[in-house]
Amino acid sequence: MEITRRQFLTVVAGTVVAPAVGMGHATRGAAAETSGRWVRRASLPFPRTEVSVAALDGKVYVIAGYAHGRVDQPYTQAYDPQADAWRDLAPMPRGLNHVAVVGSRGRIWAFGGFVEQNRNAVADAYVYDAAANHWERIAPLPAPRGAASAVELGGLLHLVGGRDQQSVGTHEVYDPTADRWHARAPLPGPRDHLGLVVLDGRIHAIGGRFNTFANNRAIHHVYDPTRDRWEERAPLPKPRSGVAAAVLRGRIYVFGGEETGGVFPDNDAYDPQADRWVAMAPMPTPRHGTGAAAVGAWIYVPGGGLTVGGSRPSDAHEAFAP
Q1: SS3 for 214?
Q2: Distances in Å between the alpha carbon of 90 and those of 81, 149, 230?
Q3: pTM for this structure?
Q4: Mean pLDDT by 10 residues, the chain (322 residues)
Q5: Which residues of 90-211 form beta strands (DSSP E)?
Q6: Exposure class string for 142-159: b at 16+ Cβ within 10 A, else e
Q7: Residues 135, 93: contact at Cβ < 8 Å?
Q8: Contacts of 65 (CB under 8 A, 6+ apart)
């Protein structure tokens, strides 16, 4: 049954310039910068959280998650930055939450997820053809898991972390040409709800948690595909999970997240050359349970949860420019 649409935004309409207040504590060479600006974009058609976000061919896709009083929604919606508008697309074959998604070669690839609230993981895998507006099943995961993260590197799709009954460090690669899975070096420590991005031919796994947000992690590992090996880098300034992460102009940006008792407004940028984090302009609407998509000169962060857990989904949609 649908609930009444509510607006939880705490931001005034129009352009939002974040206050110059540092939100993170410097660690291991980190510095306070609090630069960049946020602007408000067209709100999601209705509040959603625990969604999956991907960029593909200049558009931002928001898939599955909690909405309208249910945790197993199949919604697929796309945002066009040029038109500042959303449109509904073909729904997923199955309603899920905490799905790992990645856009590549005209398609959105979707792996795993939960059918209940952050539990009861599945091994389902699907591909969405943007030109045909159509979903299809592909080879399932070797084992069920949700709250994992996915990226594309060298034509292969890497699925990292996540959990079923408990957090795992599993790292598997999906070959879309052969429709097959292969094992790779696991994360040095099990975690889920982490940020995962590709920068300069390497995969960065950032933050996350072990089983619950009471066990948040600040740890940051980098994967070298040529050696099939993970190495440690400068940790996040604060342990957090349920984060959104994206790459723009040679830097990694990590937004939001949750911990026991609250939701983070933090926006931290990682400089790979200096191996340090810099505190950037904080989120106008602190959230977790969303994702980040870089398109052009902006990073878009749509929807998400306003409080710990899934009780207050948001239709907030804000974009950040460094």
Answers
A1: helix
A2: 20, 23, 37
A3: 0.90
A4: 28 31 34 82 98 98 98 98 98 98 97 97 98 98 98 98 97 98 97 98 98 97 98 98 98 97 97 97 98 98 96 97 97
A5: 100-104, 107-111, 114-116, 119-121, 125-129, 134-137, 149-153, 156-160, 171-175, 180-183, 195-199, 202-206
A6: eebbbbbbbbbbeebbbb
A7: yes
A8: 48, 49, 50, 51, 52, 71, 73, 75, 97, 289, 303, 313
Query: What phi, psi does 213 have (nearest 5°)?
Result: -70, -5
Mapping DSSP to helix (H, G, I), strand (E, B) and coil, where does residue 173 land?
strand
Q: How many helices (H) and strands (E) does the chain have?
A: 0, 30
pLDDT reported for residue 18: 35
Strand 317-321: give its sheet, edge to edge: 15-16, 37-40, 317-321, 298-302, 293-295
What tens digit of pLDDT does each residue of 236-256 get? 999 999 999 999 999 999 999
Report the run of H or E that residue 253 belongs to, with start and end: strand 251-255
Residue 224 main-chain phi, psi, to 5 deg: -100, 110
Q: Per DSSP, what are the bridge partners of residue 74?
A: none
* Residue 27, pLDDT score: 34
Q: Which two tokens stand for residue 219?
A: 């740890």
Look-up of token digits 């790979």: 272
CA pair distance 253, 247, nearest whole angstrom: 6
Q: What is the rounded distance in angstroms from the CA atom of residue 71 to the CA atom of residue 111?
A: 17
Strand, coil or helix: 299: strand
* pLDDT given at position 32: 53
Tell me how long the chain is.
322
Q: Which two tokens stand for residue 226?
A: 């040529």
Contact present, 254 and 243 (Cβ < 8 Å): yes
To 10 degrees, the CA torsion angle through 152, 322, 61, 308?
100
